[in-house]
Amino acid sequence: MKPVSGVGLNRISPEPQGLAGTAGTSSRTVSGPRVGVVRNPRSHRNRGHEPEAVNAANVLTVAPQTRDELATALAGFAEQGIELLVIDGGDGTVRDVLTRGARVFGTQWPKLAVLPKGKTNALAADLGLPRKWPLADAIDALSSTRTEIRRPMIVERTDRDDIHAMGFILGGGVFNAAIDAGQVAHRYGAFQGFAVAVTAAFGIVQALFGLGASPWRALAPMRIATNPGDHEIPRSSHGGSGFRFACGMSTLGKFPLGMHPFGKAGSGIQYLVIDAPLRRVIALVPALLMGLDRPYLQRLGIHRGAASEIALQLGGNFILDGEAFPPGDYRLRQGPELQFLVP
Fold first, then answer.
1. DSSP state letters, 85-148
2. What percentage of the chain carries pLDDT values higher than 70?
């Protein structure tokens, strides 16, 4: 589900016609509660494969082509009283469904299941989902009542009323360069945790040895404040006033490759902020991603914490679950408690 101009869902390709491939499919008849399935045929492991065959009248599958069609489909699911909403795609598909579904379901969401079919599936990793989880098995899991609660971040623009999104991982500053590098890694066949490792290694080399206007060493206009009181998070003597090197925020607890980038930040919206690309700091990045936590880190311009709300003033793009959104003033807060099925 690729956004146009970096803002939300705008177009989803229609279902491919006449394409072979049945990996992970099931022809079992599934009976029980009404189920709605949103399938993104452009997701990495959906391309070239027919939709999974579940022969049951209570399973309703859609593959909307625009975000308006997605909203309409979700409204139809709500009118028909679905008890389970299945998201067949990657992190970007999850973001788009949650964003458009917020106006439909409010705080009364059905249970959700994720079929991890994207290039990245951070939410699936956090939930401990298997790489291949057939649709019929996900539907069967509804009867087991095993769920995990997750709260996405609500991202609202405060200087203009044109962006409202929900997602799980937000990054600013150098994360824009990391996303570009990640796309290169995907083109060369690196996906999931391996793509994360390749991108991190490439970024460390670039940030350590990059010269001049390298995007891997650039500072970005950025102000980050936490509630209550909108107190700006601490700033070291490194970098420049009103600028930071990187910020990352998430409500997830587990990440691919066993990473713990937020350390013991606490509950709520966790954040990791780096003031400047000091070479000593860059050399610590692998250990930071694995959870390194020492008192001296703050003196080096490395800040961790958690808050219920965060105010962001960003002079550059930021990344939400893999896609770019424009500069501006934003407020992040915790979204509703969503119940995700797990095997």
1. EEEEE-HHHHHHHHHHHHHHHTT-PPEEEEEE-SS--HHHHHHT--S---HHHHHHGGGGT-EE
2. 78
